[in-house]
Amino acid sequence: MTALDMFRMGKDTLDIAAATGRSEAEIERLIHAERTAQINNFKRMRQAAR
User: Fold this and answer.
1) How far apart are CA 48 and CA 17, in angstroms?
2) How far is 48 from 36, CA to CA, in rounded Å?
3) Max alpha carbon distance in the chain (Å)?
């Protein structure tokens, strides 16, 4: 399960950090990077469908 999955399930970033053994700042960066990647993939798929 990714940090983003845990975040979507309602876990706080501090809880995710404790569960994964990473810092809260690193968890926030991971969540941001995963969201950005998903948005970019969605944009690419929409562009390819045209």
Assistant:
1) 37
2) 18
3) 44
**Token pair listed for 4:** 């983003």
Q: Determine the Cα–Cα distance for residues 32 and 23; give it in Å rounded to an integer.
A: 14
E strands within the chain? none
- Residue 50, pLDDT score: 84
Give Cα separations from 28 to 17, 22, 40, 45, 46 (angstroms).
Answer: 9, 10, 18, 26, 27
Q: In the prediction, which pLDDT does 22 show?
A: 94
> In 3-state terms, the chain is what percent helix, strand and coil (to 5)?
80, 0, 20
